[in-house]
Design goal:
The chain is mainly α and 328 residues long. It contains 13 helices and four strands. It has two domains: 102 residues, no CATH class; 219 residues, MetI-like (MetI-like fold, Orthogonal Bundle), CATH 1.10.3720. Helix 5 runs parallel beside helix 13, helix 10 packs antiparallel against helix 13 and helix 12 packs antiparallel against helix 13.
């Protein structure tokens, strides 16, 4: 199979999965208790106003017709209502929040930079720190370094993120007064303040996730060091560093990259707890507020976008496999 064919197959599979996910997600939110038109009806919500709201939202049509309208709206835009009072949602349209009087894509565009900043910075930290710590633990198996690293990893796996975040705020924010206790500064406004305000959430999220990567890397590296190809490489007279980096580590990174893609893709849909603890209004906070007010278009839009991130991350991971293991 050529690389081009491999990419096409993975891309086609990702599109099919995404269509299935959007359909299932849409149907789940459609059959939930409560009428989305009721929340947009206003007060007093007379039967006539409710019927108008249902017509404007399009929930008076059959389910499959509603889904097709939602799907085509992503690529072609969508118009709610008709006449002078019509509201046009330009593509990509994930719905319209009548409670906030804004398209869902606008609300997401306002909050996504916060979530993206938190996730990407933390992801770099937890990947580098987790793999490095796991590698050291495997190479120093049974020694003090190994036991110390695994003890810290157990703490990271066990510690609730909200508790760890509050402890960091209390110690470094209030007692030592070294870091901001919350808030977000856009990168374009001040890059240094952007990074300064994100240090705490980066470290908290990275510490918890790096613990999992440390344990995974250590176990995979110990298995790899016992494989025949590693013994063969050593028998050929290769240096230990070359054996570890060029042979063992490449195979160890395959499951690590798989987990990394899932974690990053999932968190891009909203780092809910981290955003709440550090008072940052990202997609997680947007989702929580929408759940509290039963703003179904926002909930649906964020859920579909989160699924898109996971599928896209899996696609990138599949392409990475080709670089790490040519046998794929």
């Amino acid at each position: 199979m050529t690389t081009f064919t491999y990419i096409l197959k993975r891309l086609a599979g990702g599109i099919l999965v995404l269509l299935a996910v959007t359909l299932v997600t849409y149907l789940i939110f459609l059959i939930l208790p409560g009428d989305p038109a009721q929340a947009s009806c206003g007060k007093p919500c007379t039967p006539a106003n409710l019927a108008t709201a249902r017509m404007v939202l399009g929930v008076d049509k059959p389910i499959l017709v509603q889904y097709w309208t939602f799907l085509t709206g992503i690529f072609m835009g969508r118009t709610y209502g008709s006449g002078a009072a019509a509201i046009h949602c330009t593509a990509p349209c994930l719905g319209y929040s009548f409670q906030q009087d804004q398209p869902v894509t606008t609300l997401i565009a306002q909050t996504f930079p916060v979530t993206f900043s938190i996730v990407i910075g933390a992801a770099v930290l937890w990947l580098v720190a987790g793999v490095a710590a796991g590698l050291v633990a495997a190479l120093k198996r049974g020694r003090v370094a190994d036991k110390s690293i695994m003890a810290v990893a157990i703490v990271g796996v066990s510690a609730p993120s909200y508790l760890l975040g509050l402890l960091v705020i209390l110690l470094f924010g209030f007692i030592l007064n070294m870091i901001p206790v919350g808030g977000y500064v856009p990168f374009a406004q001040n890059p240094l303040q952007w990074a300064f305000h994100l240090i705490a959430p980066w470290c908290v999220l990275a510490f918890i996730s790096a613990a999992v990567y440390t344990r995974l890397t250590r176990s995979q590296m110990l298995d790899a060091l016992g494989e025949d190809y590693v013994r063969t490489a050593r028998a050929k007279g290769l240096t230990e560093r070359r054996v570890i980096v060029r042979h063992a580590l490449r195979n160890v990174l395959v499951p690590v990259i798989t987990l990394f893609g899932l974690d990053v893709g999932g968190l891009l849909g909203g780092a809910v707890i981290t955003e709440r603890v550090f008072s940052m209004y990202g997609m997680g906070a947007l989702l929580i507020n929408a759940v509290g007010t039963k703003d179904l278009p926002v909930i649906l839009g964020v859920a579909v976008l989160a699924a898109t991130f996971v599928v896209a991350a899996n696609f990138v991971v599949d392409l990475t496999y080709k670089l790490l293991d040519p046998r794929v």
